[in-house]
Prior knowledge:
Structural class: mainly alpha
Order of helices and strands: HHHHHHHHHH
Number of strands: 0
Shape: globular
Mean pLDDT: 92
Oligomer: single chain
Amino acid sequence: MPCCGTFRRAGWSLTSTRVAFRLYAWNVAVSAAFAGPLHCLEVVLRNAVHRALTACFGREDWWARRGLTLHSIAMQSIAEATAKIDRRRKEVTADRVVAELNLGFWVALLGRGLNYETRLWRPALRLAFPRYTGGRAALHEELETVRLLRNRISHLEPIHRRHHLADYDKILRIVGYISPEAVAFHQGP
Length: 189
């Protein structure tokens, strides 16, 4: 089976297909354990960033505000989200566009972009993270590593060589910058 080749080549000296399948199954289980925290991060991040930009620019479709220049990739993502909503024959609303945009879009808004430090971070986005005291670049780096982990999991790639507890802690730390209540929900009673 093709999926096991990766685990045979993982440097674990796996010679048995049975052992490779066991490692594959373990990888699937660990990946599944990240689904809840990653889902929470994506929703909390998306909503906080959207709220902050809506408040700053005075409109729910802040991306359409005259004078706001987003990177061409961001604008393409918005156009694709709008087209997808149109194809479903739904009314294009800001909420629907926001829901269609992927994690990469939201993480990229915290990147350098087209001077996002002064155009987005200082006037708006820093307010989306009320419990964060660092700078934009460090937060973007944290989010980017989580985005890459999420993509590995979503594309059924191996994550068995990662420090899973550190990844989990990072996800909850970022969620905590926005919503300690959401962190408490994931940690349980």
